[in-house]
Amino acid sequence: AVVSTQSTGEVLYKESSDVFDLLPEEYLPDYKSFCWWDDQGVFQCLPSVYLAGMPKCGTTDLFDKLTWHPQLVAMVQSATDLTPIKERHYWSRGRVGRPGNFLTIRRRPLPKVQFGDIVVKMGAKRVLEDKELRIVDGTPSLMWDLGGWDDRYPGFQEPPYSNADLIWAVSPTARIIAILRDPVERLFSEYLYFWKGEKMRRERRTPQTFHDDVRREIRKFEKCLEVKSLRHCCYATKLYSVRLRIALGVYICYIRDWMEVWGDQFLVLTMNEYHDNPTSVLTRVFSHIGVFVPDKDELREFIQHSKIDNTNSDVKKSFGDMLDETRTLLQNFYRPFNEDLANFLKDTKYKFYQ
């Protein structure tokens, strides 16, 4: 195995010098986002809040509720188009020349997205006018996606860094949030989500095809674990089918990496608690971020009248539920990882099921 003799910072700088060469030695004080005046006299900012994961766990709805708060704002489409955007997948994909949509297949490598082209899409002008504003990045691939690390570091047994290290290097006092759900339901929801519209007409999927795919992907993961570490197998995305990303439910891999770097600046939620008591959860999230907590009656009224539809209800009606044997197979697969997560976070709610 190749062992890096470089520090994490040296690895990150070599991989993303275009990022670090543009950042200031110190950010401007008093601003709640990470802001500076660049060499051209342009005011620039980076987010100070990251809703980093996980996919199909309620990030779209939670992001909507966060950016309702008057001190939290989304990134924007461009320097001139201030239409809010939830996710950009720059840190996890564009930064290293990977397509933002993981389903995109390229015959030739993409050029790296230059940091200078991204930072102008943060909507910094709003922050210049109001120092209290915090920019929120809601990219759900940030938590887990290090795709291509094994090509960039051939022979390495594990990635030499995680995205937690990367975000720490550019914004060390940011606040990180992750929302999780039962990994069995997360996987099934994602399977249906990416089988919509044109794909439903072109590809036949049934509870039996889901079962067959599950069996195949579990075998791949278990075979990987016979010769590699758990962390290697979680991040080795080339091993698995894009139609069934089973490793994403092994939350302990990613949560451990982020918690070890971020500690108390990292808040982990479950979709169940958010669904059951959104007012209480949002109050906790706002306190974690450091913004004022809105009036609970006002917050409750907003929650009742806002609904973000990013679900698969129509698809699920035509597809039906997964087979009982599939659910049992997945529960048995995820159970030990859920228990590790519950022990690590010292909370039995992360077992998800018994």
Cα separation of the termini: 38 Å
The radius of gyration computed from the alpha-carbon positions, rounded to a whole number of angstroms, is 20 Å
Strand-and-helix sequence, N→C? HHEEEHEEHHEHHEHHHHHEHHHHH
Strand order in space, largest sheet: 5-4-6-3-7-8
Multimer state? single chain
The total of helices stands at 17
Strand content: 5-15%
Overall average pLDDT: 90
Structural class: alpha/beta
Shape: globular
Given as residue ranges, the uncertain stretches (5+ residues, pLDDT < 50) are 1-5
- Helix amount, in percent? 40-55%
Number of strands: 8
Task: For the structure shown, list the relevant keywords.
alpha/beta; 44% helix
Structure description:
With about 350 residues, the chain is an alpha/beta fold. About 45% of the residues lie in helices and about 10% in strands. It contains 17 helices and eight strands. The strands form two sheets. It has a six-stranded mixed sheet with strand order 5-4-6-3-7-8, sandwiched between helices. Strands 1-2 form a two-stranded antiparallel sheet. A hairpin with a 7-residue loop joins strand 4 (about 70-75) and strand 5 (about 85). Helix 7 runs parallel beside helix 12 (about 250-260), helix 10 (about 205-225) crosses helix 17 (about 325-345) and helix 12 runs parallel beside helix 17 (about 325-345). The chain starts with 7 loop residues before the first helix and ends in a 9-residue tail after the last helix. Residues about 1-5 have low confidence and may be disordered.
